[in-house]
Amino acid sequence: MMLLSALLGPAKAPVASEEDVESAGGVYNIILFKRPAEGVATGTLMAVASEGDDRVKLESGQRCLVCLCDFEVAEVCRKLVKCKHLFHKECIDQWLTQGRNSCPLCRGQGVDEKEKPSTPTPDGTPANPAELSAN
């Protein structure tokens, strides 16, 4: 068991790197919609993509499910690409890089992770046990 423990290392939830999170995109700015438009009432909060034309209408009282605070004008948020759930950028970035790379609401994958090269252990064997079977 000690050998297995040494090969596998500590059990840790999979987290994303900061580079993975930044490259995922999905950054939105929250604005107050002041002029009437089709399907959007005046005074409605909208999350507007910082890149592209995507907009997300925020329901009254909609909140970030990480910090449990309502979304407010001028805040920056991130929409997860796969499940489309919206969170404060600072909250979800910390969740994905320090907690777990999954959506706090639906538990779907948060962001795509780039494959990380494994470093060999001091005795020269690969740190990733899957690489042992590949040789």
TrEMBL record:
Residues 64-107 form the RING-type domain. Residues 110-135 are annotated as: Disordered. Pfam families: zf-RING_2. One of its GO terms (molecular function) is zinc ion binding. SMART domains: RING. Keywords: Membrane, Metal-binding, Transmembrane, Transmembrane helix, Zinc, Zinc-finger. Its main location: membrane. It is found in: Membrane. CDD domains: RING-H2_EL5-like. GO terms for cellular component: membrane. SUPFAM superfamilies: RING/U-box (SSF57850). This is RING-type domain-containing protein. It comes from Baudoinia panamericana (strain UAMH 10762) (Angels' share fungus). The lineage of its organism: Eukaryota, Fungi, Dikarya, Ascomycota, Pezizomycotina.
